[in-house]
């Protein structure tokens, strides 16, 4: 597949759409989108220099504190993010930042479980796009805040993984402001004919470096103003 796609980003997104369409045909439901590769730290980790996006499905969602089966993934890594839940669709108008901001119902702390079909995460930009932006699963926190209650760019994040180095970062690490990541996604999704809809969950991008996880790992992330979110990786099927 890598040889067929090469550096063709449009072809990579076409592969992504085909994969998502197959999952939907099998009964999965689209619940939102994710923005990937938004922080300098993650771009440096993966050797890329621009964001991408993928599609979230209902069977990717886990509740705060959930036991997540490690066997569902090939080589999982976890990162902490801000998730926005939309009250209004973003399909019309200029999609300026105030319109994007007004479309958000609330935000929560989130964990994204990233995964890759490419051995050893040796991925190019088009590899991760075709692989649904390396999406695996996500966990949403329980504390909801409106954008009148906090400023996403000012949050401070701290994530710990059992027996792993801590990951830390800020809202500003995500394209300067997670709302700018949401705006980028809204415009990109509309350009491709699939605008963001009311009720969708939007993972806005990493606030710090990804960390690998193994069976037995407890992951906990704290985000100022948004509380904490956690999950445990188990050998058993959930």
Secondary-structure blueprint:
Elements: H1 2-5, H2 9-25, E1 30-36, H3 40-46, E2 52-57, E3 61-62, E4 66-69, E5 77-86, H4 97-102, E6 104-114, H5 125-130, E7 135-140, E8 156-161, E9 167-170, H6 178-191, E10 201-206, E11 211-212, E12 218-223, E13 227-234
Provide keyphrases for this structure.
single chain; 238 residues; alpha+beta; 6 helices; globular
What does this structure look like?
This protein is an alpha+beta fold and 238 residues long. Helix content is 23%, strand content 33%. It is built from six helices and 13 strands. The two termini are 32 Å apart. The mean pLDDT is 92.
Give the percentage of residues in beta strands: 25-35%
Computed over alpha carbons, the radius of gyration is 16 Å
Which structural class best describes the helix and strand composition? Answer: alpha+beta
Shape: globular
The number of distinct helices, counting runs of at least 4 residues, comes to 6
Can you give the helix content as a percent range? Answer: 10-25%
Q: Overall pLDDT, averaged?
A: 92
Q: How many distinct beta strands?
A: 13
SSE series: HHEHEEEEHEHEEEHEEEE
Specify the biggest β-sheet: 8 strands, mixed
Which runs of at least 5 residues are low in confidence (pLDDT < 50)? none
Distance between the termini: 32 Å
Give the structure's gist in a few sentences:
Helix content is 23%, strand content 33%.
């Amino acid at each position: 597949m890598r040889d067929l796609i090469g550096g063709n980003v449009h072809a990579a997104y076409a592969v992504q759409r085909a994969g998502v369409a197959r999952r939907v045909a099998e009964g999965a439901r689209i619940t939102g989108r994710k923005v990937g590769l938004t922080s300098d730290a993650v771009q440096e980790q993966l050797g890329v220099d621009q964001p991408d996006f993928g599609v979230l499905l209902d069977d990717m969602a886990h509740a705060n504190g959930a036991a997540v089966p490690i066997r569902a993934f090939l080589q999982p890594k976890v990162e902490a993010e801000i998730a926005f839940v939309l009250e209004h669709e973003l399909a019309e108008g200029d999609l300026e930042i105030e319109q994007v901001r007004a479309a958000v119902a609330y935000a929560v702390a989130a964990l994204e479980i990233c995964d890759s079909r490419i051995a050893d995460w040796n991925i190019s930009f088009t590899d991760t796009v075709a692989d649904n932006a390396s999406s695996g699963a996500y966990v949403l926190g329980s504390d909801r805040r409106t954008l009148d209650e906090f400023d996403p760019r000012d949050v401070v994040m701290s994530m710990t993984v059992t027996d792993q180095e801590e990951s830390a970062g800020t809202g500003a690490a995500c394209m300067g402001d997670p709302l700018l990541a949401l705006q980028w996604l809204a415009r990109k999704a509309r350009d491709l004919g699939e605008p963001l809809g009311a009720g969708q969950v939007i993972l806005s991008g990493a606030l710090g470096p990804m960390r690998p996880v193994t069976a037995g790992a407890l992951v906990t992330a704290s985000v100022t103003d948004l509380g904490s979110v956690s999950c445990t990786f188990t050998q058993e099927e959930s």
